[in-house]
Amino acid sequence: MINLVGTDATRFFDCSMYFHFLWEAPIEFLSGLYLIYSIIGFLPALCGYLLFIFVILVQIICSRTLSEYHDNIAKCADKRIQVLSEMTNAFHIVKMNNWEDLAEKRVNSMREHEFSTIRKTYLIRALNMGLFVAATLSISLATIGYIWLTNGSVVSIDIFTAISFYGVIRTPVASYMPIAIEKTLHLRMTVKRIDELLQQSEQQTLEPSNADQYQ
């Protein structure tokens, strides 16, 4: 309950900030393709856009992986809070049996597992950010490289205009849309967790304290 109120409830607000990019980004993506095609031709534009699509697919995969990691983090946090609550309620038993070290090891083990998942999450976020930063340069090199390899003729003003269009569509397509997908998946898991909580019986039989779990 504490984790749902403190963390999961804020995901409704987070999702509302980015949800509209799920339909806005594809429209900008297709509009940009048409504009770049009208400037430098179909094949050079297609070459750059194929690389763009690859970047988007990688970021979508990263977003789904991040969503799974966030779900694991939430479950670890729920379990850790539950264990700490049990320890607090049965603190006199822990002290009486001299289980402080065992209880500390158990909490530290759970926390280390949680930290490990958090570290993986930030590594994937770093990969996403790296792809976002390198997207425009890589796509521009692919477009110019195709024109050079095919001995195509294009003036510099068209190249710079096309690169500018790539830069314009990069932010909504390569940054905000993966974030929107990630936030939407987070929200779906949050709704599932809240639904599971609400479907639980209001009067549950309290389980006896598992004092032997520290032995």
From TrEMBL:
Domain ABC transmembrane type-1: 1-175
Domain of life: Eukaryota
PROSITE patterns in the cross-refs: ABC_TM1F
Gene3D superfamilies documented for this protein: ABC transporter type 1, transmembrane domain (1.20.1560.10)
Keywords: ATP-binding, Membrane, Nucleotide-binding, Transmembrane, Transmembrane helix, Transport
Keyword Ion transport attached: no
An example molecular function term from Gene Ontology annotations: ABC-type transporter activity
Lipid bilayer topology: Multi-pass membrane protein
Keyword DNA repair: no
A GO cellular component annotation in the UniProt record: membrane
Transmembrane annotation, as ranges: 34-58, 126-149, 155-179
Localization terms from the record: Membrane
Family, per entry: Belongs to the ABC transporter superfamily. ABCC family. Conjugate transporter (TC 3.A.1.208) subfamily.
Protein name (Swiss-Prot/TrEMBL): ABC transmembrane type-1 domain-containing protein
Organism: Rotaria magnacalcarata
